[in-house]
Amino acid sequence: MQPENPQPYSAAQTNWPATAIPGRPGAHLHASQAESDDPELSADTGDHGADETEARAEPVTAPDVEPTLGSALLDELRSQITQFVIAPSREALDAITLWVAATHLQAAWQHAPRLAVVGPAKRCGKSRLLDVLTETVHDPMLTINTTPAAIFRSITEDNPPTLLVDEADTIFGSPKVAEKNEEMRGLLNAGHQRNRYVTRVVGNDHTPHRFATFAMAAIAGIGDLPDTIMDRAIVIRMRRRAEGEKVKPFRSRRDVPALHGLRDRIAAWAKPLLDEAADLEPHMPVEDRAADTWEPLVIVADLAGGEWPRRARHACAVMVAAEVAAEEENPSGARILADIRRVFHAQRDVDSLSTEELLHHLRQDDEAPWAEWGRTGLTSRELGRMLREFDIRPGNVRMADRTQRKGYMRNKFLDAWRRYCPTIHPVGADPSLREG
Q1: Which of 48, 166, 200, 405 lies in the 20 to 30 Å Cα band around 35?
Q2: Distance between terminal CA atoms of the chain?
Q3: Whose CA is closest to 18, among 6, 35, 31?
Q4: Cβ atoms of residues 5 and 319 within 8 Å
Q5: The pTM is what?
C-alpha cells in the first residue's frame, strides 16, 4: 500500500470551467459535475509520517459524473501503473497517467512536457516506472548511450517519438560530466517548445540542415536534474518502498501484451481528437511556464471527462505549489531573496540595511542554512555573489546615526522579489498554501 503526501485542497474552492466533451466541440457537461464532492480529491494532507491515505486506492467517482470511454481508459491505465509502481502521491499517479496519454497527441501540443522521475537514492522505483512507460507511451525511444546527434536525427516534426532517458545522473551528475553532455541538455531544453531547431552540416558537401527537437521526454535519475530541465518538467519525486509495501514484479513476457493492448486503445481513442486537442485553451490553475508544461495533461483530462478534469487541475495546483516550496528551500536561487524579504519585513520594511545587519539577521534564522554556510556562515562576499545573479549590488547606505556603511537598499530587491518569490502560490491552490 502506498503512503502519500498531497497538499491541503478543496475542489469546491475553485470554479472550474465547463468540461469539453470529446467529439462534440462546444458541448459541455452539466456544471454540477465540476463541483461534486470527491473524498479522494479533497482529502486533507500533511507531512510524511502523518496519518496518510492510500495512494494506490481506486479513484472514487462522484455519482453525478458519468464515466466516458476516455475516462475509463485513463482509469484502466492508472490501475495498471499501480500494479508495478508505488507513486509518491495520488496527484503524482494522476499526472503520470495523463502524461502517458498526452504522448499519443504530441502533434497537437505547443509544448512537450518533460516527466522528471527523480529520487534521493537507488531502488526508488524510477527504472521500473520507465519500464511501464516504455510499453504504454507513443513510439518510445530509449536513449541509453545514444548521442544527441542520433536523437535529433530520429525526431520527425509531424510524429515525434517519446524520449526515455534513464540514469540521467550519469549524464548530469557532476559539473565535469555535465559539461561533456551540454548538447544533450540543450536538446532536452529546446525540445520543450515546438519550432525550436538545431542546425547541423550533413553530407560530404557539409550542407546545413535543420533538425527538429520537439518531443515529449521522461527523464529518470538520482537527485534533481539541471534547473533548466526541472523548470520544464512535471516532477515525480519517487521514494523507496517501505516495509509492507508491495508491487507486482514486471515480467515482459507476461505483462507487455496487456500494456500494449491498452496503449493501442488509448491511441485509437486519441487519434480522432487531434484537431480538437490542438484548438482547446483550457482554464489553468497555474501560470507562465508551469501552465505551458501542464496544459497538455489538462487538455487530455478535459477530453476524457468524468472525474479527470478535476483530478488534473488538482494535481497541477498541488504539485506546482510543492515545487515552488522546494525551490524556496533550496539554498541557492530564490531562497536567498525570500529570506532577505523576510528580514526587511521583520525590520518594518526599512529603506536599507547594512551588509553587517543583513548577514546577522540571516544567520539568526534557525530554519535557514546561512549560519552554517561555508566554514563560518554566509559572508558578505558570498552574499554579493549570490545577489549579482539578480542584478542586485551593495552600495553606500545611510544609517540611523547618519553614518554611511556598505549595505543594500530595499527598493533594489523589489523587481527580483516580484519575479522570483511572489507572495502567493499558483492560482487555484488552497489559500492555506499561501505565504502569510
Answers
A1: 48
A2: 35
A3: 31
A4: no
A5: 0.66
**What pLDDT sits at residue 178?**
60
H or E segment to which residue 258 belongs: helix 252-270
| β-pairing verdict for 162-165 and 140-142 | parallel
Closest CA to 128 of 259, 270, 264, 293: 259
* Alpha-carbon span 407 to 413, nearest angstrom: 12
- Whether residue 172 contacts residue 178, with contact meaning beta carbons closer than 8 Å, is answered with yes
* DSSP character at residue 225: P
> Using CA atoms, how far apart are residues 112 and 106, in angstroms rounded to an integer?
7
Q: Does the pLDDT value for residue 247 go beyond 50?
A: yes
Whether the CB-CB separation of 158 and 214 falls below 8 Å is answered with no
Q: pLDDT tens digits for 325-353? A: 777 665 556 788 889 999 999 998 999 99
Phi, psi of 127 (to 5 degrees): -70, -35
* CB distance 158 to 195 below 8 Å: no
Instruction: Mention every residue, 6+ apart, whose C-beta is less than 8 A from residue 298.
Output: 98, 282, 284, 309, 312, 313, 316
Alpha carbons within 13 angstroms on the beta-carbon side of residue 73 total: 25
User: Averaged over 395-408, what is the pLDDT?
Assistant: 88
Report the alpha-carbon distance of residue 127 to residue 277 in Å, rounded. 30
d(CA 284, CA 139): 28
